[in-house]
Design brief:
By secondary structure, the chain is an alpha+beta fold.
Length: about 270
C-alpha cells in the first residue's frame, strides 16, 4: 500500500533521532470514533469521527468489523454496549513507496472533562520553581460527576533534600489537585444497556513553571504509589496509566475487553 503525502514524524531523544539510532522510521496516525457491540460480543455498529483517506478507512473498517469482545454483563446478563474508541496506527516503510500499516494501540472509554475549576498552583512551589505531575484516582457516577477522588502518585520535577521534604511538596500539589477535581464534570463514553455507566479513572494534573512546547520532554522524580481504600482491583487501569503521563489524557477503566488479537497486525 502506498501512502501519498504523509508527513514523517521523527521522535527526538537526547539530541538524536530514532532514524539516526538505527531504528526504523515510521508514520503515526491517531483516530477517534465509536463502537457498539451486541450481547454476543460482536461489533454491531462502528464509525470513525476522524477523517482518514479512503484507502486507510477501508482497511480499518474491515479490521474493526471483525473484532470479537468479551460480552458486557449487567447482573450477569450480556447486553448491548457502546463506547468511545481511540486507535493509534503506524505505517512503516517496506519497499519503494510502500508502507506496512498496523494498529499499534487501541483504547476504549476515553472521557472528556466538560467543566470545573482549574487547580491553584501552590504558591510555595511556584516560588521554589518546582513542577509536578499528580495522578489522581477518581470514581465518576453515571452523570460524570466526581464522587470519589484520592492521590495515586505524584512526581516532582527535581529531587528534594530529604524524603520528608519531598512528601511535603507532593502533598501540597495533591491538595490543590483534589480540591479542583471535586468540582469537575466529565462526558462519559460508555453506554451499557441503554444507560450511561459510572467509571473509575486516572486523571493526570500537570503543574509546569513557565511556558513549554507540547512535545517538550520533561524530567520527573517518580513518587510512591499511595494506597486507596475505596478503589477496586483494576490491574488494566494501572497498566494503562502511562497513557496519562502527558498531563492531559484521562485514562478510564473500560468495560470493553477484546478477545481478538489486534495489536501489531498488518491491515
Amino acid at each position: 500500500m502506498s501512502l501519498a503525502r504523509c508527513s514523517l514524524f521523527v521522535l527526538l531523544i537526547a539530541g538524536g533521532s530514532i532514524a539516526n539510532a538505527g531504528s526504523k522510521e515510521f508514520i503515526r496516525l491517531d483516530a477517534d470514533g465509536e463502537i457498539k457491540i451486541d450481547p454476543t460480543g460482536h461489533v454491531s455498529e462502528y464509525h470513525l469521527e476522524s477523517k482518514l483517506s479512503p484507502q486507510i478507512a477501508t482497511l480499518v473498517d474491515r479490521q474493526v468489523h471483525g473484532w470479537a469482545f468479551e460480552p458486557v454483563l449487567v447482573g450477569g446478563k450480556p447486553v448491548f454496549a457502546k463506547t468511545a474508541l481511540h486507535l493509534q496506527l503506524t505505517a512503516e516503510p517496506t519497499q519503494g513507496d510502500n508502507f506496512a500499516l498496523r494498529i499499534s494501540s487501541v483504547r476504549f472509554g476515553d472521557i472528556e472533562r466538560m467543566g470545573g475549576q482549574l487547580p491553584t498552583y501552590p504558591p510555595a512551589a511556584a516560588r521554589a520553581g518546582l513542577s509536578a505531575l499528580v495522578m489522581l484516582r477518581v470514581r465518576l457516577d453515571e452523570h460524570g460527576k466526581v464522587v470519589e477522588v484520592a492521590p495515586y502518585q505524584t512526581s516532582l520535577s527535581r529531587p528534594a533534600a530529604s524524603e520528608r521534604i519531598a512528601d511535603e511538596w507532593r502533598r501540597m500539589f495533591e491538595k490543590a489537585s483534589v480540591e479542583a477535581a471535586r468540582t469537575w464534570h466529565y462526558r462519559l463514553a460508555e453506554i451499557v444497556d441503554g444507560k450511561p455507566a459510572s467509571v473509575d479513572a486516572i486523571l493526570p494534573i500537570a503543574f509546569h513553571m513557565g511556558t513549554s512546547a507540547p512535545d517538550e520532554w520533561r524530567a520527573y522524580v517518580r513518587g510512591p504509589v499511595r494506597e486507596i481504600s475505596w478503589h477496586k482491583d483494576s490491574a488494566g487501569l494501572e497498566r494503562d496509566q502511562l497513557a496519562a503521563t502527558d498531563g492531559s489524557t484521562a485514562v478510564a477503566e473500560s468495560r470493553f475487553h477484546l478477545k481478538s488479537d489486534v495489536i501489531g497486525r498488518v491491515l
